[in-house]
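Support case: user asked for a sample of complex input and structure output to validate their parser. Sending the pair below.
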Amino acid sequence: MKYAFYPGCTVQAEQFGYEASAREVLPRIGVELIDMKGTSCCGFPAFSSVYPSAWYYLSARNMAIAESLRLDLFPLCNGCHMSFVETKHYLEVNPGFKESINRDLKKEGLTYTGDVKIVHILEILHDIIGVETIEAFVKKPIKGLKFATHPGCHAIRSGSLNHTDDPENPQKLDDLMRALGANVMDYPEKTDCCGSSLAIASGKTTLMIAGEKLQSIKRYGFDGLVTVCPFCFKVFDNRQRAIQATMGDKSLEIPVFYYTQLLGLAMGLEPLKLGLELNLSSIDPIIEKILEG
Amino acid sequence: MPKEDSVLIIGGGIAGIQASIDLANRGINVYLIEMAPYIGGVVAQLDKTFPTMNCCICILEPKMIECYRHPKITVYTLSEVTGVEGSKGNFKVKILERPRFVDISRCTMCGNCIEKCPVIVPNEFQAGFESRKAIYIPFPQAVPYAPSIDKGSCLHFREGSCRICEDTCPARAIKYEQSSKIVSLNVSSIIVATGFKQYNPEEMREYGYKRYDNVITSIEFERLVSPYGPTSGELVRPSDKKVAKRIAFVQCVGSRSHREGVGVPYCSGICCMYAAKEAVTIKEKYPESEPTIFYIDIKAFSRDFQNLINKARDEMGVEYIRGRPGEIRENPLTKDLYVWYENTDTGEIGRKEVDLAILSAAILSRSENTKLAEVLGVELDEFGFFKVEDPFLKPLETTRDGIYVCGCCHGPRDISNSVIEASAAAMKAAIGIQSEAAGSGG
């Protein structure tokens, strides 16, 4: 299967580990990633509050590029995914506005028809490739480790538009972790916010929200946290030292991974190829454990 | 042409039973049709009445027996109405009677068959908290008091391999060869009393029903506190069989819903009162327990209803929090629950840790109503309840002359009102017969 690949700015500007691991792992399991030329910002959902038409335009523009490639669009970032899904819906129910966007796109020789499908990494892995197939690629099962899953809110909300997973009881990431041999368990804070949306307005609040979630993950005895969202990863992993300081708890250490990194390790790939050196949380003991088998 | 002084009553719950008894005591023949193998309906499953706090089965049991043994009442269990022709005063009705596979007249209720039956399945009557056999009686007070074979789970019917109940029956009452029968009846009028079903809160994903062991519905709770229930009345929670102390009632689950495709917009009418009753029951049995009722507002409109609410809140120490919980979550290690809510009196967001959560799920129309309404030639309302001609002038008359309703089949109501309506519907049916008799005699 082939997709127009849209990593998104957060991934391309700072979450190199996600892009590296995705580009390393996905083609090996049959997902061909076609890079898109001339893409722009996804529109960023937060724009919608100040300049909605700019958001729709930017979002539609990227979808139009995917359409010109005759491919479905695979944004690696949860935020971009939601941006596309919401724009697609908005233009569907507002054909007049779609027309005016197309007038602007025409200047670049682009057209947005709305035929493009937006696929999320959970859908590709869980629904299209399938858990059994992924299981078959596993050479080094992640045994004896219990992971908390965090799909990230943008992947599953709003529930009425975005059918990536059940917004109240997301289970696909759990299934995918089980396929790697890992233990998973539901926990009450599973669908709680990572806090990142508040990062600009109130950085401390972000850290407290994330901190409470990490504390409960620790309380339930998880060995690590896995996510598919670069925003969530950024808070939980990159800001973990700051979270410790905010919560006044130096012992609050939770190793954080992208799913593609764990999938790569389970497939027996070199940690260096998966961008794991860029994870800032204390992942080394977990990697050792996985490599030992 | 001679008119039959008979009435057909569809549904053997408390409304159908009451209407049957009243008509029969007036000397009128009654045919009572029940879909299940036993009469009694939902009230048989309930623990206590409100506001009087009487034992439900103690009220129902004498009525069930009186009804079943009444010389003027013929009870058809496992039956449904498949055809109605004619008009008021002269309906020709066809009944499909499914086999019980047990000859009630021979059965001595020795219980051998039940003991020896090798099949074990969940007992629906006990809300699945207890198992039963393929040949079974659902509860000790069941009427008729004789087993029936559930064809769907019986090995004899599934694989043809087993005849254990037949071999073990000293009275030779097991009859595998019984088949469905069509019964034709002539009746003057028809009373529909098919009751309701409870909303399945599974679709309100945020409350975790069926996902979390300790989230149950109010009818399931009724079985847990019933002295005749699976736990003999011990309020033990499903996950670890420990007595639940901290209990949350979530009101309006599926009722008064404005969410598209989820629940129903109307008020179910009885949940405020049964939740108060259930909370008082808990407090009376376990004084140290901590029941909390999360509500939108309290509808206590009938005589003595407000007294029960006051008693629950002011005397028994039941906590009332005004706010509709947004979410219930489960601690995966302890299976305790966290109820998230906004207290709309104070504006505070809260998280309450409880052992057990009870969902006061909405009262819905029965899905069988669609087919039955077609057979009867009457209309349903937008929610699938039987429609009445006029709520004031003809409150129990359906859209077809001579067919009446009572109880929850035309909307949510409590037991007391269902019984009142049953007697009223019986009166309407009787008036039809007697005015005809007077007319033909003159």
